[in-house]
Design a protein that fits this description.
Layout lengths: L1 H69 L21 H11 L2 E3 L4 E5 L2 E13 L12 E12 L1 E2 L10 E5 L2 E5 L12 H4 E5 L2
Antiparallel strand pairs: 1-3, 2-3, 3-4, 4-8, 5-6, 6-7
Helix pairs in contact: 1-2
C-alpha cells in the first residue's frame, strides 16, 4: 500500500514540475525580449543624441563665422553673441545625417528648428537601421527603434546691454574676461567656439 501511494505522488508531481518549468522558460524568453527592446531603444536614443549635438555644433561653427564677419562691419554684431541672431544651420542636416549613420541609424526627414528655453534648438528624429530582432513577441523581427533629441546653442558671455558696438566691448564668459575692439579686430582673434557658446541637450 505505501509503495503504490508513493508512486502515485510522483506521478502527480511530474506534470506540475513540467508546467512550472514551462512557465519559467516562457518568463525567461519574455525577459530576453524586453531586454532586446530596451537595448534597441537605448541605441536609438544614443544615435538621436549624437545627431542633435552634431547639428548644433555645426550651426555653432556657422554662427562663429557670422560673428567674425560682423564685428567691425555691422553695428548689430552683438546680436550674434546674445542669441538674437541665429544661424541658418546650412550644414546641420548633413552633420546630423553623418552621426546618425555612424550609429547605424537614419535621420528621419530634416531637422526641426525652433527655440528651446529661449535658445536656438535643433531636433533630430532617427530610426535604427537594425531591428529589435526575433523573440517570442510577434513582429519584433521587423520592428525598428525610433527616438528624438533636441540640442541647443546657449551663449556663455554677458556684456553691458548699453555697450556701444563701435567701441571696445568687454565680455564675461563664465568667469573668463574677453575684450573685443571692433576698430582693431581680426577674426583670428576670436577664441574657440566653446568659450563663447555651449552646446548641450535640451531634452
Amino acid at each position: 500500500m505505501t509503495a503504490v501511494h508513493l508512486r502515485g505522488d510522483r506521478g502527480q508531481t511530474l506534470p506540475i514540475y513540467i508546467w512550472l518549468t514551462g512557465i519559467l522558460l516562457f518568463a525567461a524568453f519574455a525577459c530576453f525580449a524586453f531586454a532586446q527592446a530596451a537595448s534597441a531603444r537605448n541605441g536609438a536614443q544614443s544615435a538621436a543624441d549624437a545627431a542633435a549635438l552634431a547639428a548644433a555644433q555645426s550651426a555653432r561653427d556657422e554662427l562663429m563665422d557670422h560673428l567674425g564677419a560682423a564685428i567691425g562691419t555691422d553695428d548689430n554684431w552683438l546680436d550674434w553673441l546674445d542669441g538674437v541672431q541665429r544661424p541658418e544651420g546650412a550644414g546641420a542636416d548633413a552633420a546630423a545625417q553623418q552621426l546618425a549613420a555612424e550609429n547605424d541609424s537614419t535621420l528621419q526627414g530634416r531637422l526641426q528648428l525652433g527655440m528651446r528655453n529661449g535658445y536656438p534648438g535643433y531636433q533630430a528624429s532617427i530610426q535604427t537601421n537594425y531591428t529589435v530582432g526575433r523573440s517570442i513577441i510577434p513582429g519584433t523581427e521587423a520592428k525598428h527603434a525610433t527616438a528624438h533629441a533636441v540640442a541647443v546653442i546657449q551663449p556663455r558671455c554677458d556684456f553691458d546691454p548699453a555697450a556701444d558696438p563701435k567701441k571696445p566691448v568687454e565680455l564675461k564668459c563664465d568667469g573668463e574676461t574677453l575684450n573685443i575692439d571692433p576698430g582693431d579686430f581680426d577674426p583670428g582673434d576670436l577664441p574657440d567656439a566653446s568659450v563663447l557658446f555651449s552646446v548641450h541637450l535640451a531634452e
